[in-house]
Amino acid sequence: MYSTTAYLYQQIQQVILIDTSGIGSTFDRRWQPVYAKDLKLNLGVDNVILFQFLNQDQKPVNITGATFTFRMISQNGGNLLYAKELVILNAPTGRAKVTIPSADTLNFQAQPASWSLEIS
After folding, report:
1. Distance between alpha carbon 59 and the CA centroid of its chain, in Å?
2. Looking at residue 21, what DSSP letter applies?
3. Whole-angstrom Cα distance, residue 56 to residue 84?
4. What is the spatial distance between Cα 46 and Cα 97, in angstroms, rounded to a whole number?
5. Taking 60 as the threshold, does the pLDDT of residue 24 lie above it?
6. What are the residues whose beta carbons fall under 8 Å from the beta carbon of 94, sequence distance 6 or more?
7. Torsion of the alpha carbons at 48, 80, 102 and 88, rounded to the nearest 10
8. Mean of per-residue pLDDT scores for the chain
9. Maximum separation of any 2 CA atoms in the chain, in Å
10. Taking residues 2-8, what's their average pLDDT?
11. Which residue pairs, CB below 8 angstroms and at least 24 apart, start in 3-9?
12. Which of 6, 31, 41, 59 is the most exposed place for a label (fewest CB within 10 A)?
């Protein structure tokens, strides 16, 4: 009998939160990841996506009291495919996650899509 080992890697996305508390409230730094990985959702398994919230200086941001919603949007931006609230793992260090259950992935069609986070 043959067996195949498969690994699902942890998907960690860094998110820059702009500090708007200063005078002028402008974003004065450029930050663009060179080797950013695409998010991939796998059919039939629970997909966990971890988020690390950082400021312009690449330091963790305290996200206490914030509510984030993960939104998956069609490539043309016309349809909202999925939305779910993030679970805060560690608010002082800016860590949160979203878990997309395997039952929800059965309703997805294979297609490229974009994602965004909504804060309230």
Report:
1. 18
2. S
3. 26
4. 12
5. no
6. 17, 52, 53, 54, 60, 61, 62, 63
7. 30
8. 83
9. 67
10. 74
11. 8/42, 8/45
12. 6
- The tens digit of pLDDT for each residue in 38-65 reads 788 888 888 999 999 998 788 899 999 9
User: Which tokens sit at 90?
Assistant: 């560690």
The reported pLDDT for the residue numbered 70 is 94
Beta bridge partners of 85: 69
User: Over pLDDT 90: what percentage of the chain?
Assistant: 34
Token duo for residue 30: 């450029």
pLDDT at position 56: 79
- Residue 89 and residue 98: Cα distance in Å, rounded? 10
